[in-house]
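User: Batch of two.

Assistant: Item 1 of 2:
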Amino acid sequence: MLRDKSLIPLSHQHQHALALCVRIERASPIPSSDLSAWQTEIAQLFRSEIAAHFAAEEQVLFPVASEDSELKSLVEDLLNDHQWLGDQFARSGNEVLSAENLNALAQRLSAHIRKEERQLFEGLQKKLSAQRLGQLGAKLETALKDVPQVCSRPDETTQLRPRK
């Protein structure tokens, strides 16, 4: 199903986060000498984009989705993911994540995004009218107005490299 235009800003941010997950996966096992650079980048991405993304979902999207009994338990799962991921992002800001923690973060973040895209967004598009989706989109646009709309560029240590 094509993504409704009201949800596209969230989907674009999902693409940014998935790119990070792919880079972490390809860099694994991450040498201890590179952990600081990875954690700095992850913490910066959280501050610049993901924190506002989570807030927009929790304040705008999830309440609407929770009105539907079929989506309510999915929203509860997604909120649990936000809590766990937020804790890991905070730990990255304190530079206490191990290489294994970074891999776990990437795996959970990737699974979380896919759950939102494939289940939540698809469900909302099937259940909400075009008018309601438009209203939701306007509220999301307001909630995300101060978030940069470009991917941050990784540094030399964290950039994607060809597989060996």
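Item 2 of 2:
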Amino acid sequence: MKKLVLGAVLALLLVQPVAGFCGSDLDVFISNLNVQAQADLPGFKARLSATFGLAGPQVEAVISSVQTPADAYMVLKVGQVARQPQEVVLKEYRANKGRGWGIIAKNLGIKPGSREFHELKKGFDDGDSGKGKGKGQGKGKGNR
């Protein structure tokens, strides 16, 4: 029994770096995005349309191609950040969806920890929230 438990713990330790690649922040972001989408799917679709400049049928096509609404957002956002068409991102998603969005992004040229990687979890709500951009806010003439 002890060997079985020890083996399971070792297996988790070996898998953790791969599964944890995308980082808990991105996992939390995706989870929260799914909760928001489930609360108001028509609104979520409208926001995808406005954010990515897509017509309703295009948004519907992406949503119907993935498992969750947040995956639809990630297909569009990763495509935008990696400068890849959504068809390329969808192909990578189908091949690696079980490995996580961090792996998918890496395979499409977005390096872990890079500015582009961090961009994946920001931007969708920035325009709607009324919050400032963060860094650099309040710096400059007249803001002292």
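The chain has nine helices and no strands.
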